[in-house]
């Protein structure tokens, strides 16, 4: 059939091919598989013979890599190995656990992605084998960046890769997890899938990677990482990379590392930061920090700048206020409280921008690669030297140049410079030119006055900054008592210094890395990480102001602003140790009587002779001037007054109380149900009998009035007929218009035309019905029937309203 359906030329070609030996499809697959096994055997042999410390390894082509990985690297224009890649990749290819430490921007991402691809290739991994590699990142932005690099260099592999970072539907991610060979994730989201996603198997995991391992091993991620490692098999390869690596034995034991190889690309270097990075610091008082930052932005309008703050509240306030002031450079802001879609969009916009300024928290301080960043400004002193190294690493990446400026408060200068010296960080002091300084306090104060939302952000920025300084562990650097808080509040444009209470015992890193759902009501720190949770005390009684502080995106009320200020609008901060969990200062909770006393407005009442005042059914004891002044407030006295019972009105306008259901116990106390039912029936029967009697009397009265009206009409008709007959038979010289005046007129009630008032006239007369009909009336009736098409029409003067009228109507119909 196939041959018959082909053309002659096609049949000839088919016969020609039959004469040649063509290998079968199965044989072709077998040959391809055999060649692949031979290539894989040669590759494994080359890896075994590889010397990790060989000085000849300078390019990726010098490494024993499979063709899929090598072609992906060439297509992505990766050729020369960096120091950390030259030291770490050979060790990882041989299956060793690696602890890698290198400067920021030195290529650590490729140092673990290449071993991941090679590990799965050597194991002949397919999508049916499940999860083979797990890469953990502390932030979402860094995880997205790792995933993008993985897609570039792994474009020729057949592995499936996924990104699990939260911000999306957990159900949608769970449906795809079972088919993924490589996962890039954040700790909190990955742990959530391991605990909740049914059928998610990680028992075949081959390699685990922790990027920015020192941050992941911090207290903020400790519980999440420990729980995550419990799900993973111990027979795996583990790679840890960071710019500041930890060598603690406890951390290595927790991750089940087997004889790890420590790789440091800058341990013997002069500086822990890139040599092409120019670092400097400025000593500026806290009250002049925003003035200095504004002057810097106005001077560098054609630059790409990242400004780091210690909390998201400060980021939001500075962004919103500077946006109104329009410095002349595009502004963006990024912090951990934003939605995932917004964070990705802002990251993409800043990466592609030529000029711009990004206000950010430490959420982008590690690993994130923004192209061509000119300046890194640290407006707030970092918590430690490691954080400083990671922040300045956003510029001067991989042989490019960059500059970094650190703002230090005078009390922070000496202590933090010692910390940088210990980390081999060279930095020099610079001064701001006098002509570049400009105070923006008045402008900020004006904008705060115009916008209640901006004023509220300023208050929260003040609170979050002072709280973060107070909770810092390094008291040699962060000296809370030496801060000029009044000047700082004034520099934010606030009318007064918010009054704050503080409490000790919290770790600032734990607060910053805590997940959004785990942040308690008193926490104002920025949530930059994905792990770490704190239990919330639900049994604690919370005041109204504590609940207001818990709300997300709450409206700003001027009364709330006044309440967090002192009486004179310039309240000072209270830095005493307090075990109270309140973060905002609130009024103490008073008992009911004490609240009544406090309502009068005096602190030292002068007691008077007690007296009793009756308010409705209740009594109020007046034993002080406060209580006596309370009598002037009608609103506060309402709870002492007898409010009575609520009434409703039925259709007839009668008032009755609202029907309410009675409790079963109260109903049982009234007596047996049968007796109550009989009483109810007897009462209702009596009401019905009374209503029936009243209805009968009313009907009887109506009938009597109707008969009287009918008799009156008949008498009127007879009188009119007699009067008309007399005038017709009277003197011819009489009044000629008397007859006309005697006739009824339109709208007249049937009076006799004697000139009576309209209100005294009788109602219109109704023609008296007769039970007989004479000949003339019969002829008239027949004439009307002919006019109306032969149908008889019965005319009624009035609508029948009694039995007699109905009988007359029925008789007329029967005659027809």
TrEMBL record:
Swiss-Prot/TrEMBL keywords: ATP-binding, Helicase, Hydrolase, Nucleotide-binding, Nucleus, Ribosome biogenesis, RNA-binding, rRNA processing
EC number: 3.6.4.13
InterPro entries assigned: DEAD/DEAH_box_helicase_dom, Helicase_ATP-bd, Helicase_C-like, P-loop_NTPase, RNA-helicase_DEAD-box_CS, SPB4-like_CTE
Bias-annotated ranges (Basic and acidic residues): 24-45, 537-553, 686-698, 707-724
Domain Helicase ATP-binding: 89-263
Catalysed reactions, as listed in the record: ATP + H2O = ADP + phosphate + H(+)
Record GO terms (molecular function): ATP binding; hydrolase activity; RNA binding; RNA helicase activity
Protein's name according to its UniProt entry: ATP-dependent RNA helicase
Native source organism of the sequence: Parachaetomium inaequale
């Amino acid at each position: 059939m196939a041959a018959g359906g082909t053309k002659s030329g096609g049949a000839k070609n088919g016969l020609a091919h039959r004469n040649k030996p063509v290998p079968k499809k199965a044989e072709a697959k077998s040959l391809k598989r055999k060649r692949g096994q031979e290539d894989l055997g040669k590759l494994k042999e080359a890896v075994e013979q590889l010397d990790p410390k060989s000085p000849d390894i300078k390019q990726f082509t010098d490494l024993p890599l499979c063709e899929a990985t090598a072609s992906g690297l060439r297509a992505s224009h990766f050729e020369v190995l960096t120091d950390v890649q030259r030291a770490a990749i050979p060790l990882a290819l041989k299956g060793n656990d690696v602890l890698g430490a290198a400067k920021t921007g030195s290529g650590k991402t490729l140092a673990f992605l290449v071993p991941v691809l090679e590990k799965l290739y050597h194991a002949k991994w397919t999508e049916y084998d499940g999860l083979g590699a797990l890469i953990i990142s502390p932030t979402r932005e860094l995880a997205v960046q790792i995933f993008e690099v993985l897609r570039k260099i792994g474009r020729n592999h057949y592995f499936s890769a996924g990104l699990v970072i939260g911000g999306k539907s957990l159900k949608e991610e769970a449906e795809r997890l079972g088919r993924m060979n490589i996962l890039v994730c954040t700790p909190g989201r990955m742990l959530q899938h391991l605990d909740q996603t049914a059928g998610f198997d990680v028992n075949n995991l081959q390699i685990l990677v922790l990027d920015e391992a020192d941050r992941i091993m911090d207290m903020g991620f400790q519980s999440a990482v420990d729980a995550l490692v419990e799900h993973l098999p111990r027979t795996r390869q583990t790679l840890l990379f960071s710019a500041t690596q930890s060598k603690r034995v406890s951390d290595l034991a927790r991750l089940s590392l087997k004889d790890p190889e420590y790789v440091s690309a800058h341990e013997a270097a002069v500086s822990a930061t890139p040599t092409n990075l120019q670092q400097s610091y400025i000593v500026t008082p806290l009250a002049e920090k925003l003035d200095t930052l504004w002057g810097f932005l106005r001077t560098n309008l054609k630059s790409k700048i990242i400004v780091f703050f210690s909390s998201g509240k400060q980021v939001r306030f500075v962004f919103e206020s500077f946006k109104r002031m329009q410095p002349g450079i595009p502004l963006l802001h990024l912090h951990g409280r934003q939605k995932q879609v917004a964070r990705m969009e802002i990251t993409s916009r800043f990466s592609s921008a030529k000029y711009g300024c990004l206000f950010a928290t430490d959420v982008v301080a590690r690993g994130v690669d923004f192209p061509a960043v000119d300046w890194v400004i640290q407006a707030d002193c970092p918590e430690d030297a490691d954080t400083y190294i990671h922040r300045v690493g956003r510029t001067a990446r991989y042989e490019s140049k960059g500059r970094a400026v650190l703002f230090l408060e005078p009390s922070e200068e000496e202590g933090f410079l010692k910390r940088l010296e210990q980390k081999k960080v060279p930095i020099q002091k610079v001064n701001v030119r006098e002509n570049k300084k400009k105070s923006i306090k008045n402008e900020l104060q004006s904008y705060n006055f115009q916008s209640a939302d901006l004023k509220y952000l300023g208050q929260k920025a003040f609170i979050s900054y002072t709280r973060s300084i107070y909770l810092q562990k390094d008291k040699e650097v962060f000296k809370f008592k030496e801060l000029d808080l009044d000047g700082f509040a004034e520099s934010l444009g606030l009318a007064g210094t918010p009054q704050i209470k503080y409490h000790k015992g919290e770790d600032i890193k734990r607060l910053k890395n805590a997940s959004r759902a785990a942040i308690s009501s008193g926490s104002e720190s920025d949530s930059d990480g994905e792990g770490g949770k704190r239990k919330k005390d639900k049994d604690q009684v919370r005041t109204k102001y504590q609940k207001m502080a818990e709300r997300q995106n709450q409206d700003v009320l001027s009364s709330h602003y006044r309440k967090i200020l002192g009486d004179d609008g310039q309240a000072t901060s209270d830095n005493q140790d307090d075990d109270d969990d309140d973060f905002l200062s609130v009024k103490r909770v008073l008992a009911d009587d004490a609240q009544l006393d406090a309502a009068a407005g005096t602190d030292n009442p002068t007691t008077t002779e007690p007296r009793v005042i009756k308010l409705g059914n209740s009594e109020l004891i007046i034993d002080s001037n406060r209580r006596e002044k309370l009598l002037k407030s009608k609103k506060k006295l309402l709870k002492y007054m007898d409010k009575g019972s609520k009434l409703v009105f039925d259709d007839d306008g009668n008032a009755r109380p609202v029907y309410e259901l009675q409790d079963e116990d109260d109903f049982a106390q009234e007596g047996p149900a049968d007796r109550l039912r009989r009483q109810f029936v007897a009462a209702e029967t009596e009401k019905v009998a009374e209503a029936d009697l009243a209805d009968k009397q009313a009907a009887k009265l109506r009938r009597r009035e109707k008969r009287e009206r009918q008799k009156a009409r008949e008498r009127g008709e007879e009188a009119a007929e007699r009067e008309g007959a007399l005038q017709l038979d009277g003197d011819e010289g009489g009044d000629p218009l008397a007859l006309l005046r005697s006739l009824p007129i339109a709208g007249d009630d049937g009076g006799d035309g004697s000139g009576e008032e309209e209100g005294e006239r009788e109602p219109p007369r109704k023609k008296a019905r007769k039970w007989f009909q004479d000949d003339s009336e019969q002829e008239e009736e027949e004439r009307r029937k002919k006019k109306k098409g032969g149908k008889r029409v019965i005319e009624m003067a009035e609508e029948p309203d009694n039995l007699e009228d109905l009988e007359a109507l029925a008789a007329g119909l029967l005659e027809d």
